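Recall the central idea of this unit: under ordinary conditions, the amino acid sequence of a chain determines the structure it adopts. In this exercise we apply that idea directly, starting from the sequence alone.
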Amino acid sequence: MTEAITIGVDHGYAAMKSKNFSFPTGLVGYDHEPYTQQNVLEYGGKYYVVGSGRQPLQKDKTVTEDYYLLTLAAIAKELAHRGAEPTAAVHLAAGLPLTSFGRDKRKFREYLLRDGKPVSFRYEGIAYTVTIREVSLFPQGYAAVLTQSELLDEPSVIVADIGGWTVDLMRLDNRIPNAATCRSLELGMIRCLDEIAEQVRRALGLSMTAAQIESCLRGESGSTGEQVREIIHREAGAYTRRLLSAITESGLDARAMPAVFLGGGAALLKRHVSATDGLCRPLILDDVCLNAKGYERLVGQLSRAAHAAGGG
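Accordingly, the structure predicted from this sequence is:
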């Protein structure tokens, strides 16, 4: 039996992330072939343009087929990037927030595994036949922090994974997640971006897209005027202070121990989190693919441990 290729996928509300890619969760279906092959998934007789906009909020990602289709697109991107054959066995490594991990683990695993049967589809014109042979699930946030060896020497660390809809919090004590400290706050970047857009509209009568606001937060030089930039950064600063206050209210003292910020929101808020002097001791991990990389690393560690235990 050929060895399965391990592919880590982070299923966010706003973006899908794998080891080498991040793309929006938008998915638009068509009955007929679109004008372009770019970002087009063909599955079950339908065509889907992947990455246009973002998903409507789905607290249960197994309710529709959307996240399964997005997973197929992520797998295809990784196989092509790695120069692998389009007919492949895959060990899928994914994650869930620790707050819902025990409750949702079985259902999400079955949703992704599909009985381990081969699935055929096309992505950007290339035909794939993928067999998801195994699905391993890990707590998100925790997996990302495990990639940062210097952090693990700290006796206690706060982890804040700033996603599209939620901010998932946990405290690690001696490298182990303290389950009693886990919280999921509905304070993700979608809330921040929507509030910024509303304030720009009220003040200047302009309707800005999320992409424009994100570009400004990243410090990219665009055509955005000075007044707009001032409002964007003012509101981002207010959101950051609100987030830090919510973390404190959750019983986690960001002044007493290092606070690790990761996820798509951490990359966008980098300058604002670091500017909150005295409010916290932040470490910002702005690689949005860190969770997916962490999932792959954990599968490798477990595989090596199993081989060692079996004398392999």
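The CA atoms of residues 77 and 83 lie 10 Å apart.
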